[in-house]
Amino acid sequence: MKSKKNILCIGAGYVGGPSMAMIAYKCPDYRITVVDINSDRIDAWNSEELPIYEPGLDKIVKKTRGRNLFFKKDIENQIKENDIIFVSVHTPTKTYGAGADMAADLQYWEKTARQILKYSRSSKIVIEKSTLPVKTALAMEKILSSAKGKFRFEVLSNPEFMAEGTAISDLENPDRVLIGSHQTKSGLKARAELIKIYSRWILKEKIITSNIWSSELSKLVANAFLAQRVSSINSISALCEKTDADISEVAEAVGMDSRIGNKFLKAGIGFGGSCFKKDILNLVYLCRYYGLKEVASYWENVVKINEYQQERFVANILNGMFGTLAGKKICILGFAFKADTGDTRESPAIYISQKLLAEHAELIISDPKALKNAAADLSGIKGKVKYIEDPYEAASGCHALLILTDWDLYMNLDFRKIYKTMVKPAFIFDGRNIIDHKKCFSIGFNVYPIGKPALSHFKI
Ligand SMILES: NC(=O)c1ccc[n+]([C@@H]2O[C@H](COP(=O)([O-])OP(=O)(O)OC[C@H]3O[C@@H](n4cnc5c(N)ncnc54)[C@H](O)[C@@H]3O)[C@@H](O)[C@H]2O)c1
After folding, report:
1. Which site in 5, 84, 159, 448 is 20 to 30 Å from 122, CA atoms measured?
2. What are residue 120's phi and psi, to 5 degrees?
């Protein structure tokens, strides 16, 4: 028998899986089904080893899977059965044709809209969860309303603000939930339906509403602002390395200003992940499309500084290690784009590894969760690469350690033990400023942090 409280999510990725698991967990009287065209992904969601690593995710999937959370492959049937449909398919940067390398590739979205139209046998609420360029909902509505007079499709925008690595706590206790709708009777009715779901566990004042376009744009802008802070502090780290200033001290002093705040002010090798770069480029594309070339170039520079920071890091390694890396063994600690995830999409480690291999260095890559993805990212690239999970084993016999991900694990390593097994002089390039630099220097390492003077045992 068809229940009134059925929800479908199309796209079982980093957003679809965790966000639907949270709704299932908080709303036991709703039946949530997640579908995907990638059947291996669905198998993994139904297995003991979930397709993504996210702290706390295992626990809530175990509690809900088979109870009111289901991962299925029969997309056609599921569209027929469910009247509330979240869409969280990916929206990568377009790699071809008009807008290549900037605009969002909306082919997955459009295919989903056409599937919904083709298989629907009743009216539906369709909710954009993917991050989309402004006015995508309009395109979706045009497709959905092409079968005139049959059923009604009300499109809402409900962008996801969770961050990988903290997805479960972000979903459980979000800063805000944003719902964009048309201000029509049916739009407001659909919006109320979605508010009903979120208000099961989220305070009413944190559920905010807007028109659809504001909602779509807010997600792009939130990511652009976060990335802009990272690039701002990283640009200043370059200046610190040329002077006697220390970026951690500068960031502390600046961040204590309550108008600025101290979050996202940590210098490092730059942002990664599937979203920041893609969403900024998308914003840049939109600005250009509307003839706002100054605004476009302002945001484009956020991405340029991010790339510059990674180039600088590689140049510092090369300079520090006497201008040559050929035949030297370099241990990379951390390949994921941030701690607490196995995701390596757009990870700075990819670019840095490629550059080091081009210098004929040998790489030994270590990461607690991302080695499978790292091997896929570097497959087909010429050079010697080994993958070793244990950081002590990975570092043994190496000339240098690079810290590329801020895993807690690396803060607490026994660097004295590691130093003994490395080739001397031994180097550390701390791309995340997470270890005790003075202590490592006193052990014997030559230490190169970001945005601080290097601690070198060489007199020249
Ligand atoms: N990853 C994040 O941290 C994050 C956070 C907030 C928002 N977002 C946004 O959410 C969206 C999804 O991101 P993600 O990281 O979950 O992507 P993802 O690549 O992990 O997952 C997307 C899934 O959609 C599936 N898919 C594509 N077309 C389909 C179709 N027609 N039918 C069924 N399944 C289909 C793919 O097979 C894939 O498994 C993107 O727009 C992204 O920008 C991501």
Report:
1. 159
2. -70, 140
